[in-house]
Design goal:
This is DUF373 family protein. By secondary structure, the protein is of the alpha/beta class. The protein has a five-stranded mixed β-sheet with strand order 2-3-1-4-5, sandwiched between helices. The chain is built from 13 helices and five strands.
Length: 356
Amino acid sequence: MVKKLVLAIDRDDDLGRKTGIPSPVIGREANIQAAIKLAIADPEDSDVNTMFGAVKIYDELKEKGEDVEVVTVCGDENVGVISDSKIAEQLDMLARKFGATSAIVVTDGSEDEFVLPIISSRFKIDAVSRIIVKQSKTIESTYFLIKRMLNDPKIARMTLTPLGILFLIYSIFLLARYPEWGTGAIIFAIGFYFLIKAYGLEDVVEDYFSTLKKALLEGRMSFIAYVISAILIVIGTIQGLNMVWRVYNQPIAPGVITLITSFIYGSIWWVVAGGIAATFGKIFDLILEKKPFIKQLAIPFLLISTGLVLWGASVFILSGSGIGVEQDSALQYLLFSIFGAVLITLMAIIPLTKRA
């Protein structure tokens, strides 16, 4: 039984992937040997310094006579829910094994610190030590940084992918001789990327492309459905931007709400169609695999209901700015769309409740 743990955190499990050493790694000698193996496997990995930093703190506390143990805890290559769940399981095991009440957390100052709330829910955190490696001017050169970005899949996905998309967007509009549209599309893409990051939807996007790749390799019907879905969503985005452009060029300058509403009005049914196409592809795969698919049948109805409400609301809001139909007619459209959405939703949900 010890009172305090020195925890070296490796959220993406570089130690396990590169050396095959399972975690948690408990004890001074075990951590030193594991760090040496990781250094041999990848001398540039910052987790090597994290582990040695944890051992150094452990030695300092031991010299002061404190009751302490050093442990390296690793997550998973799939950073997020999976990796954090594995770390939580190991922390629970350590709490039972040692009965420790406090911890000193050692990280390399990157994404590892995202697990601090998980640790603090199990141990009182006395300190957080961030290990920053001193680098020479040669390592700090632009060439090295670019080379490292290209070689590191995590960094490449976070930096090069958005840059590549922005360059492609601008080049397409430049070839079409609409450079001003390209600027607007780039701003839209950056805003969309920020929203994805803000709401933690990276895993959703990554899962979509992983599913698309898996469907292609396994020859599933859903591959075609996902491709059609993506094309429809892209068309919807273009139609929405086209509607925004038309509204923006009105004699009276529109407000931000009007521009957002015009985008919804121009794109909503294309997006709904894309969602329905993807759903039917999934249903077809489930039928071929002889798996339950009844619950999936409700999704197209719910998408149509959502589309109706958003379309009716956009028509009503735009009518207030003098765009589209008269406001009285727009109010009727809104009421009918809400009624239709409720009716369609009930049609989707009631059969499921009866089966339950």
